[in-house]
Amino acid sequence: MQPIRIGLSDGSVEGSAAGGVRRFYSLPYTAPITPERRFRVPQPVERWEGVRDATTAGPRAPQPDLPANELDITPLMGAPGPAGPDYLTLNVFAPEQDGPPRPVMVFIHGGSFVAGSKDAAIYDGSAFARDGVVCVVINYRLGIEGFLPIEGVPTNLGLRDMIEALRWVRDNIALFGGDPANVTLFGESGGAFCTAVLMTSPLAKGLFHRAICQSGHILISRDPPIMQRLLKRIAGRLRIKPDRAGFLSVSTEKMLAAQTWAMAPSLWFDQKDRQGRDPSFGITRYLPVHGDDVLPLPTIEALAGGAGREIDLLIGTTTEEANIFFVPGGLRDKINTLAALLFMSKALPRPRAALRAYGLGQKGQKPGHVLTRAMTDLMFRAMTRRTAELHQGKSYVYEFDWRSPALGGQFGAAHAVELPFVFDTLAAGIGENGILGKDPPQALADSIHALWIRFATDGTVPWPAFEAKERQVYSLTRQTAAHEPVMPAAAFLP
Fold it and tell me: pLDDT per residue over 183-203, tens digit each?
């Protein structure tokens, strides 16, 4: 690798170049989150003297350790690295060869709003740079620090971080050969939900021009009073006041322990809205709130009202999303009818009817398998299509339907399986315990990766925009679009 330097407005950085790709790791887009800056809006980058080393990964946002799992999910979530306050940073992967301004793609990682890292192996943007795109991957604040509305603290700090990263891209990306007038924001899971809601944010307006939502949609923001209940629950656990001073008085380790404690399923605590729905289905407690300057309106209302109409949208899901929650550990086969009903009752006003629509009570239908199918549609697939319908700009819907052979062939087209195909990083997901099994199809990665680049370049895809009647959905494996009937889940969702 050859060293390569770039002079930014805040100081010089040294990355590396090899194989036609320039790589710069952990470039700051805000000042470090030192104790005095915790629970504050992101502050301007501090200028530095000399040359900043941008050849290695830096700290990630504070988060709990990964739980034990049959699958190796470290390539998805990132490995623990050096600790430190300088974690609001981003990686840039750019073509080495000079040329006309390149399309820019900015990626927001997932992790249920409590975990993840820009440095996860699967998010290596080298292949995008190799193929003519400037790819940016960002960190942001998570969990309590990023999404809990604490008394006296600005709301939606995680989203504010993302907006600040987009401003950094606007102001700096031309130095890496990128076109600040052609930016695509994309994300998966929690990152896709954030991408969708940022389409409606007045603070993000004009900072990106296209959006790609992988397994995420617009129905995600919560009423502040719902999150206030969570705030009081966590503060009570920590025996602190529910304000900034209270949270600053406990160690990060204790705060993360309480954050994880609050994630545990509970019969006595729910986060349902006035209609009796919880858009996260209990998978996470930490979500953006509406009613502030970031998200003035409930995001589904804002989208339906025309917010983000100027943004082209590519949105889709995997065919068996919820397998990631219920297949590892054999949980899907252990769930009985009562457990399935209790689980669904925490998120929907008519849980039994919803499960019956997916086969509960029918001969030969195991309750855990019914719950998994229902969750796939209720939490992901149906609202993805609804988002495409509500969006007043152009929307295109895809389906990722390649089945991973992991876990004895049971993992299938689970949540997150498409990511190595999008980034063309299949090697990071293979192996005995890899999410892709041993021999995923490179040809499929080639086609999906190229499709994402084509959309980011000029907003085109090889199938019609999604309309409520025609409902054209593109199969990424068959590379054809077809009419998709309305799902049973649609009767139980907004």
Answer: 999 999 999 999 999 999 999
Q: 98: how many CB neighbours lie within 10 A of its CB? A: 6
Per residue in 33-68, pLDDT (tens digit) is: 999 999 999 999 999 999 999 999 999 999 998 887
Tens of pLDDT along 316-373?
A: 999 999 999 999 999 999 999 999 999 999 999 999 999 999 999 999 999 999 999 9
3-state secondary structure (DSSP) of residue 395: strand
Neighbours of 201 (CB within 10 A): 25
Q: Which two tokens stand for residue 428?
A: 């990071």
Q: What is the mean pLDDT of residues 202-229?
A: 97
Provide, for the chain, the percentages of residues in helix, strand and coil under a 3-state DSSP scheme, each rounded to the nearest 5: 35, 20, 50
Cα-Cα-Cα-Cα torsion 29, 34, 35, 39, nearest 10 degrees, comes to 0
Rg (CA), the chain: 22
Q: What is the DSSP letter of 201?
A: -
Provide the annotated active-site residues.
Answer: 189, 321, 415
Query: What is the spatial distance between Cα 358 and Cα 176, in angstroms, rounded to a whole number?
Result: 50
From residue 225, give the alpha-carbon distance in Å to each of 230, 273, 294, 374, 412: 9, 9, 17, 28, 38
